[in-house]
User: Which sequence fits this backbone?
């Protein structure tokens, strides 16, 4: 089969690989639709270390091609969504309620990390009954594939932010995760949602997804503006959706005493992330910092699909570019370098 791989640090390309085989509890999926994520770029540029000929990608839907002898819920031909995170559900971390960390820190993240990812004609899914979900007939592949990561991650950041009904929320960076954090904040009942980004297309989409105010950080100091908008109190919940030291510090600064900072960003550079000491109340302002890796699993995917089926939101607005699998090298370059106003490139197989 054909696969798009990280050949080594800073080098990608196509190669031929053997078709994967399922174990007794596993499945092999024929890929039909996938998305490129900025974290794929982080990986290629060394954020998790060297990888040799590792198939990239972790956001995909497809048709069941083969199943293992013990798989009960799925059969060949089923149209399925697979979460970007595929935990081992018998693991102690999973049993303790931290399935995304199964086996080790970030251990639920297997695709394009510790095993081949989804940018291939076929990909392997461990514990298929627990890690896949049937896609309802009314939902397109393009919409469903956003549930694999973007909806799950963005909504996780809103869930972790402990947003009170009618509360105030600031979302730093309005990429796909930030936009879904905005949508998640509205679904959680926020009364005021403030987005921070300088890209006009992102600002426009964030308003469509529920941002009441969008601050252009290239024109105004976002901390000062957020404090002004909240009567100098700060927000109940601040969401970091970029993975940068500067935006993380801003989130700490605008969270009110007793508020929550929810980090969903992938901090792929640097040795440290800094906490501003005084804004943190010298450690005693009762500001909670919560982090997370997007949840996986069939239950999570089914719940996200239900939101699409009931028309709570349309994630396909984020699709700015479309490519065939044979053009994935071009698509990756556009996403890697953030060219041509890209938000999310969709790959069809």
Assistant:
């Amino acid at each position: 089969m054909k696969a798009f791989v990280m050949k080594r640090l800073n080098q990608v390309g196509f190669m031929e690989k053997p078709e994967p085989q399922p174990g007794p509890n596993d499945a092999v999926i024929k890929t039909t639709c996938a998305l490129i994520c900025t974290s794929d770029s982080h990986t290629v540029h060394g954020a998790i270390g060297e990888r040799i000929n590792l198939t990239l990608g972790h956001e995909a839907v497809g048709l069941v091609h083969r199943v293992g002898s013990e798989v009960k819920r799925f059969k060949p031909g089923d149209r399925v969504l697979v979460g970007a995170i595929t935990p081992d559900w018998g693991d102690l971390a999973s049993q303790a309620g931290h399935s995304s960390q199964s086996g080790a820190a970030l251990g639920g993240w297997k695709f394009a990390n510790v095993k081949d990812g989804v940018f291939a004609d076929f990909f392997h899914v461990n514990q298929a009954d627990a890690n896949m979900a049937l896609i309802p007939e009314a939902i397109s592949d393009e919409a469903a594939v956003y549930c694999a990561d973007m909806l799950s991650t963005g909504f996780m950041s809103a869930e972790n932010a402990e947003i009170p009904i009618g509360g105030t929320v600031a979302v730093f960076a309005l990429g796909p995760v930030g936009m879904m954090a905005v949508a998640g904040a509205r679904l959680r009942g926020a009364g005021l949602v403030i987005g921070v980004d300088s890209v006009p297309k992102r600002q426009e989409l964030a308003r469509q997804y529920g941002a009441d105010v969008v601050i252009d950080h290239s024109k105004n100091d976002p901390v000062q503006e957020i404090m002004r908008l909240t009567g100098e109190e700060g927000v109940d919940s601040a969401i970091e959706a970029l993975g940068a030291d500067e935006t993380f510090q801003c989130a700490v600064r605008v969270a009110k005493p007793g508020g929550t900072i929810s980090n969903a960003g992938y901090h792929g550079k640097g040795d440290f992330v800094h906490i501003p000491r005084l804004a943190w109340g010298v450690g005693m302002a009762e500001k909670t910092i919560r982090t997370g890796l997007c949840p996986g699993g069939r239950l999570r995917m089914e719940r996200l699909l239900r939101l699409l089926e009931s028309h709570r939101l349309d994630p396909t607005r984020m699709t700015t570019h479309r490519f065939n699998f044979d053009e994935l090298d071009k698509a990756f370059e556009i996403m890697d370098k953030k060219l041509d106003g890209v938000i999310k490139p969709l790959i069809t197989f």
